[in-house]
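Let us begin with a simple case.
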Amino acid sequence: MKTRIRILAKLLALLVFCSSIATADPVLEWNAIMVITISGQNPFAQARFAAITQLAVFEAVNSITKEYQTYLGIIAAPKGASPEAAAIAAAHAVLREYFPGNAAILDAARANSLAALPDGQAKNDGIVVGLASAALLIALRANDGSTPPQFYLPTSSAPGQWQLTPSCPPAGGVFLHWRNVTPFGIRSSQQFRSDPPPTLTSHRYARSYNEVKEVGDAGSAQRPPHQSDVARFFAVVSAVAAWNPAVNQVASAKGKSLSKNARAFALLNMAMSDALVSVMETKYHYNLWRPETAIRAGDTDGNRNTEPLGSFVPFITTPCFPSYPSGHASASYAARKIAEEIFGEAGHSITLSNPLVPGVILQYDSFGQLTTDIDDARVYGGIHFRFDQTAGAQQGMQVGEYVHKHNLRRTCGDAETRRDMK
């Protein structure tokens, strides 16, 4: 009975959430459904599932509209097939494959979406194309390195070396294997490895150390209420859960075509997933300690400007892997780069909220404002140094730029690609 109640509650939430999405565009509708469906996963799995789903949608739609270079290049769509039906079928099939426990919810959403389309051969052909696209993407990612999990146990207790924090399982640092996940749009996880972090004895390290020590402690009086709100918000809202709704709102307001929106969400989620693969490779390459460890041991780092605070406890829970660079920053700046390339930097109306953080409503009119809040959230949350955020931002921008430049290009040349901005 409790399981059925939870399913019905989730379906109701899904239908209410999607009622605000322009149902004339099933790409937007099923992007919202995707975000809700994957919400119980960790941020890394969310990014992978989102990329697979949105690439399947793109490939299904693009096999019919043929506006962009394909990702797979092997789906032959019947003439006149419905791209709307293809998008619905592709998203549904991917999500149902990975989340069979949500079958009832997803089947109901599929029936509701397809009911808005006229019956006939075009609809039936579109469904076939969507199913084919989903099957191909699922098969492509079957052995992509996302399983089995691997863990890391520190081999040194030297100053600066990452150590287990209270959130860690006995097995050690989590998501060690994510550095080996096959990227979607970049060449390898090492392609955009960040430069080394600042040395412990540097002025830059001391500045970042003292900032997070002052504003990131659970009992800090120097953290303004807004910064507490954003820290709590982005502690539970991943990059995928923030950027998909943000871009969905902007795409809905812009009124771009089904095909353009399919491409936008494919690139957005490819970039976020690849950024998280990249950041985990960098994190475990440098193995830098977290502020929680560093600030309690400030008298061991050789820097006379870093006084220790043995009672330091971060405002939010420290994730169980190395600090440098910030994963939320890397994924978010990759998303920002894609979003700005397609929709422009500013002039938007974005509102973010989440039931896990009641009473917190964040509003933005540019994508840059969103990344600023995310950067501050990690520092004021006490889990990252400011230079973690800076390095994550640079890495994310590089990943986003590469993904946008080398994937899903216009079939008609760069001139039309530039007109996407207009």
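The second case is a distinct protein. As before, the sequence precedes its structure tokens.
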Amino acid sequence: MNAREPDQQFAGDVTEDLFLGDALMVRQPRTGYRAGTDAVLLAATLAPEIVGEKTVLDVGSGVGVVGLCVAARCPGAKVVLLEREPKLAALARYNVSRNDLDMRVSVVETDIARATGALDASEIASESFAFVLANPPYHDEGRSTTAEDRLRAASHQMPQDALDIWARFLNRMAAPGGRAAMIHKTDALPRILSAFSGRFGGISVLPIHARADEAAIRVIVTGIKGSRAPLSILPGITLHAPDNAFLPEIEAVFRHGAALRPKIGG
């Protein structure tokens, strides 16, 4: 591989981690927010037969794990990673090249609240993506201990009203009939539904349970731009067996790139 090395701004303070078995090698910061289970689950809501050669936008991509997993699993997909933090965008560019995905995956460095100039420069039009995905920071600003490192804090926290900004941007970038999907903590569900209301219809909620006898720990909320279909609650997904091992169908998602069932997007 001829991956371009990112600059020295992390000074080697990174790890190289495998995703989807050994299909992806991803470099990410050693400390602070690290992409893992949630990113893979969000990517797995898109099945290759649904995506085909359509366009996918990974909003707030960090080092690119969601979008890279989509690209690795869906060989026809064209993916854009959008990230505002220069250090993470540099790692995302490295990860794209490291995994030989330059022909189908690109990185745009911009803030979603001020993205017009960067999108225009990259010749990316609004309402041009069949699928828009988001794994935003999970903690409300001021409700948890702020990380000393500004980058780490930005990756973990955002203002309480920011979900509306994210939903507005997802709506802006989704094509008519396009699908937006967001993964978040369960206690954010009311705010996500409020933010999606009026922007997306046909909203579905997929609960994610660590174990079958426990309350859901995550939700994946999907909406369709322009749909008038009602809200639906999908059968939940359970990750672990009683012995803490992944259930076989979840092992297939993490090791072999299988899609989540029930599928979102079908």
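Residues 86-98 form the longest helix (13 residues). Residues 128 and 175 are 5 Å apart (CA to CA).
Keep these points in mind for the review questions at the end of the chapter.
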